[in-house]
User: Which sequence fits this backbone?
């Protein structure tokens, strides 16, 4: 199971690193959205009356909000994955929570989320991360 723990942590770091790259692309697109729309209108592919100006004004705001959410969740997931590598209980719980967010990202996020939940909710793994103190073991007291 040690290999599974390490694999879950590494896969979460890599996947969330890719999501961070995606959020950076979203920030760049939000920054140049007005210029892109002006270019499209000048090419004649989109008439000025096709979309209300209010819609065009709110699109970059939505892109930035989504990008910030993706960035925050990804940073938390990477920190949690490092905690998993160090066998910290808080890291395990953090990756479990983030794995539920991953489930909606079909297909890669779903596969990673299911695998992470399968590994981190396993009884053997729970004991590795949270061993019972000697006073709570099943041994009879003398």
Assistant:
């Amino acid at each position: 199971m040690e290999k599974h723990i390490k694999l879950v942590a590494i896969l979460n770091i890599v996947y969330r690193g890719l999501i961070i790259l995606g959020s950076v692309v979203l920030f760049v697109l939000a920054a140049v959205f007005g210029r892109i729309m002006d270019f499209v209108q000048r090419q004649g592919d989109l008439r000025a009356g096709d979309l209300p100006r209010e819609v065009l004004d709110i699109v970059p705001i939505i892109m930035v909000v989504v990008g910030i959410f993706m960035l925050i969740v990804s940073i938390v997931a990477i920190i949690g994955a490092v905690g998993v590598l160090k066998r910290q209980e808080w890291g395990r719980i953090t990756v479990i929570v983030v794995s539920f967010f991953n489930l909606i990202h079909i297909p890669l996020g779903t596969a990673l989320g299911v695998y992470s939940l399968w590994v981190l909710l396993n009884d053997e793994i729970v004991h590795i991360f949270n061993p019972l103190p000697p006073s709570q073991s099943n041994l009879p007291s003398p």
